[in-house]
Amino acid sequence: MSRSEPAPAGPDLELTDYERRVLAAWTETHKKSTLMLFILLALSEEPRWSGQIREFITELSEAYLAVDEQSMHRALRRVEGLNLITHSQESVSGTGAKRKIYELTASGERVLAGYLHGPMAYMSTKLFRDATAAARRVQPS
Fold it and tell me: Are 57 and 65 within 8 A, CB to CB?
């Protein structure tokens, strides 16, 4: 099982088939909604091409949210359609091929900052960290 697939959270956690399906659906929803955030975070550091963005996402999530190439390109088109990122063409040396280099727009920078200081701000609170730590320690019956 790869880390991007839903897995039991603890060594002794056994899920029923129904619970695995619920977890898989929740994981897929989370992955899709998190992808835009991770793309913007990747581009907040520097312009990157899609392969570098995928590597950033895998590294940042410690491979829990690895994304395939096709999903990455769909997400990039969606985020670019929102005018949060833009791209330019760059020649790949020795091949003659062109590569899209993505970067944040000014609007993308503001939206990312607003998201991190608004809806995502709870993640840095002590109460949230304590609650998630406590939930990880719970052993189901």
Answer: yes
73 near 50, Cβ under 8 Å?
yes
User: Tokens 């959270």 appear where?
Assistant: 9
Tokens coding 60 = 């940042």
pLDDT in tens, the chain (141 residues): 244 454 444 545 788 999 999 998 998 888 888 999 999 999 999 999 999 999 999 999 998 888 899 999 999 999 999 999 999 999 888 888 899 999 999 999 999 999 999 989 999 999 999 999 998 887 665
Both ends of the chain: CA-CA distance in Å?
24
CA distance 2 to 92: 31
User: Partners of 91 in the beta sheet?
Assistant: 98
Integer Cα distance of 54 and 65 in angstroms: 10
Rounded to 5°, the CA angle 72-66-118 comes to 80
pTM above 0.85, yes or no: no
The DSSP element (H or E) to which 81 belongs, if any, is helix 69-81
